[in-house]
Amino acid sequence: MSDRGLIGEQGRAALAEFVRAAFGADSVSVGDCRKLSGGAIQENWLVDLDIVGGVHAGGLSTVVRTDAPSGVAVSHSRADEFQLLSAAFAAGVTVPEPLLCCESTEVIGKPFVVMRRIGGTALGQKVTRDLSIGGDRELLTERLGEELARIHSITPTTHSFDFLPGPEKIDSLNEFREHLDALGEPRSALEWGLRWLEINRMPVEEPVLLHHDFRTGNYMVDGEGLTGVLDWEFAGWGEPHEDIGWFCAMCWRFGQRDKPAGGIGSREALYRGYERVSGRTVDPKRVYFWEVFAHIRWAVIAVQQGHRFLKGGERTLDIVLTGRRPAEIEYEILRMTPPDNGLFDAVY
After folding, report:
1. Is 6 exposed, middle or buried (0-12, 13-18, 19+ CB in 10 A)?
2. Which of 167, 177, 198, 336 is the most exposed place for a label (fewest CB within 10 A)?
3. H-type helices in the chain, by residue range?
4. Are residues 154 and 301 in the same domain?
5. pLDDT confidence bin for 1, thresholds 50/70/90
6. Statement to judge: residues 75 and 22 lie in one domain
7. Which alpha helices (H) appear in 75-222, and where do they start and end?
8. What is the CATH number of the domain that holds 25?
9. pTM: predicted TM-score of the whole model, two decimal places
10. Looking at residues 248-265, what average pLDDT do you find?
11. What residue numbers bound the domain in which 101 lies?
12. What's the average model confidence in pLDDT over 212-239?
């Protein structure tokens, strides 16, 4: 990070001045400022601000979210992510309140957004195993179904995002076939899975806004329950069951194979919350289809993450461990798509 980054006094002073001007405050000073763990695609910084004057006067606990040294091709810019987060906040989704967006590189060396900080933890292994957090697990699962339904209330008829391809241009299977081809290495299990999906594809649903990474690990909980849905850098138009399948995929249960909804609860609770708020009926066959797709998508992203370590020079433990995940994901794809079993014979 340059000397304008948040690691140094120059960057922190520049951030304080940016916030002061944006909020119309008399003065702003930066207190605690440290990089948070996690965030393989983006960097997240805990920043405490002391604001004098203006509508935000007083102490303000924030998270400043900016780009990691390298990323993956399908992630949004910080400005685009800010627009999506703002739309979700307005739609009643439980998300960190978006406060400011800076597209300039002149403040801390790269674009960033400022969000109000929320409490709790998002660590998938902890959320799925520590029953002292999150409250009643079936209620939490149902609540997450409700949150997903609120996200899906954003549609191409209610919102327009210039940076998103039109829904008529979306073809998730072809997109990830192109990503797979671009890897330049043989991945037979992924080719098999993609062919299974092509054979078993069902008629396309009406598009909605997908979070595209709605899973355990990307929401925060405290001792009582849900505090916020995080990480909107992959959001885009698509079929609603795709998000449901991603949440239920085995790769996001963190070893809790008997809890198919995110490793925390039952499908019934998730579907119940989703159906009540959305007015849609969840189709288990469509969910199964998109669970298979979820594993292909995650495997491709994991390979890309490995390339960040091997080819991009980003030497972090999180990234190299993610780069070793494709083999176990490919096993799950093969388990779900036996040669003599089509979609309508598949069982959970």
Report:
1. buried
2. 198
3. 9-23, 78-90, 124-129, 137-151, 172-183, 188-200, 240-248, 267-278, 284-310, 317-322, 326-336
4. yes
5. very low
6. yes
7. 78-90, 124-129, 137-151, 172-183, 188-200
8. 3.30.200.20
9. 0.90
10. 96
11. 9-116
12. 96
